[in-house]
Amino acid sequence: MSASTDADEDRMDLSDEEASSLSLRASKAFRPSAPISARSFFAGRWDQLLAVVDAVAQPGLHIVVFGERGVGKTSLANMIAPTLSVFDDLSDDQGAEHLVIKVNVNSNDDFGLVWDRVFREVSWDKEKPTIGFAPPAEKELLTLHEALAIPSPPSIDDVKRVLKALPASVIILDEFDRIKRENQSLFTDLIKLLSDYSIDSTVVLVGVSETVDDLVQDHASIVRAVVQIPMPRMNKPELIDILGKASEALDVVFEEKAMEVVITVSQGLPHYTHLLGLNSVRAAAKQNTRRITEEIVQIAFDMSAQQALQTIREKHLQAVHSARRDALYSQVAIACAVASSSFVDALGFFHPSDVALSLADVLGRPKVGISTFQRHLSEFCEPQRGPILKKFGQPRAYKYRFIDPLMPTYIFIQAVSCGLLKPNQLFSLTAR
User: Fold this and answer.
1) Per the CB 3.0–4.6 Å rule, which of 77, 258, 285, 317 could disulfide with 22?
2) Is the CB of residue 299 less than 8 Å from the CB of residue 283?
3) Are strands 142-143 and 123-124 parallel, antiparallel or unpaired?
4) By the 8 A CB rule, do 38 and 45 touch?
């Protein structure tokens, strides 16, 4: 081994103090349980951010960001303000400065409650609205309600009047899918009203949904006023970017095989890339090294299986638990996860024939008949075993899909953790 190589290897070693520091700092670079809020750690999604900027630049246009759970919609919403700040700095209009307000919607909200909360996020210094900091002491600070005499709760006309007084404002309503369907119509009416009058304020609706129609009631009436921004699962380069930015910040090295395992198992969901990345770094720190190998990632699987969302863990345990040692619930669940990843259409559906091929691979058999696991599929759709699957279609032509898109990847992590699969098996199982 050359002297330079020896030096490189020595640099990979960590003292106990450095290892402890690395474990602590890892939680800033990897955030599986919270959306990314720092631009330096936000990876990918450039096309979606550009679409947001383009829409904001056109008065009368509004935005709907939608996609399945776990794809990073809230992280994208958190990046709108810093992205627009850069846009403002580059603008020829020196007076241009966007006011970005973000609130979360909950299931008990209605139109008035949401907008009342939005307006309480803004203060007024008698010259312009501000958010996030107080004006100089000599200026009188008013609430927006006081400055513009806004009733509580505000009506649709009140909201229109206030937004007209807040030029270049961007209002982000996150988790919009949580609001009751019967409370959505006024939001649709507001977007149409703001668009008709070309008011320079952009409403951004963000929520879990497969389509805009599922997220926004009567979407057809505002189709020309809304830019649809679907959030697909992340592609491989975007997931590599997550690991790359974190590695640079933490001064660690993911070996190529280790990185490939994390990306393959993540299935395009940044939540799991962050979870496995965090635990891989901490497992490496326990071994006093900056180098993350495939063996260290294997340890991270065990840690991640214990740290996954409690609801996912409980649903999975309920689905596969059996007093019989020869029961195939765990293996069939793995086969369903493989089928949803390997034979997946755009919406994640799979058929029993797909499961048959996957189960044969999982069990190491040349062939498995559908009758072997048909009962398991049916039970996975019933309350006593979750349910973790939903069944669609007609008898003899059923297709299935996981209810929670985070479940298949957890099944992979759990399978590796308990020894039902090895990490290298995932490559062959999912590469169809």
Assistant:
1) 285
2) yes
3) antiparallel
4) no
Cα gap 34→301, rounded to integer Å: 20
Instruction: State how far the Cα of 149 lies from the Cα of 146, in Å rounded to an integer.
Output: 5
pLDDT (tens, 9 = 90+) of the chain, 432 residues, equals 444 455 556 568 999 999 999 999 999 899 887 565 555 556 678 889 889 999 998 888 999 999 888 888 988 899 899 888 888 777 666 556 889 999 999 999 999 999 999 999 888 766 656 665 555 555 677 788 888 889 989 999 999 999 999 989 999 999 999 998 888 889 999 999 999 999 999 999 999 887 777 777 666 778 889 999 998 888 899 899 999 999 999 999 999 999 999 999 998 899 999 999 999 999 999 999 999 999 999 999 999 999 888 889 999 999 999 988 778 999 999 999 999 887 556 567 899 999 999 999 899 899 999 999 999 999 999 999 989 999 998 888 899 999 998 999 999 999 998 888 887 777 777 665
**Euclidean distance between CA atoms 270 and 302, whole angstroms:** 19
393 within 8 A of 399, measured Cβ to Cβ: yes
Cα–Cα separations (whole angstroms), residue 80 to 147, 177, 247, 253: 27, 19, 24, 30
CATH number for the domain whose boundaries are 310-431:
1.10.10
In the chain, domain spans = 5-33+235-307, 45-230, 310-431
Q: Could you tell me which CATH number the domain at 45-230 has?
A: 3.40.50.300
pTM of the predicted structure, to 2 decimals:
0.82
Residue with tokens 């979870």: 275
Neighbour-count burial for 367-403, b at 16+ CB within 10 Å, e otherwise = ebeeebbeebbebbbeeebbbbbeeeeeeeeeebbbe
CA angle 52, 177, 232 (to 5 degrees): 50
Cβ–Cβ under 8 Å, residues 222 and 192:
yes
Q: Which residue has the tokens 């755009």?
A: 346
DSSP 197-255: TT-SEEEEEEEE-SSHHHHSTTGGGGGGGEEEEE-PPP-HHHHHHHHHHHHHHHT-EE-
Distance CA 306, CA 414 (A): 9
| Residue 317 tokens, joined | 């345990």
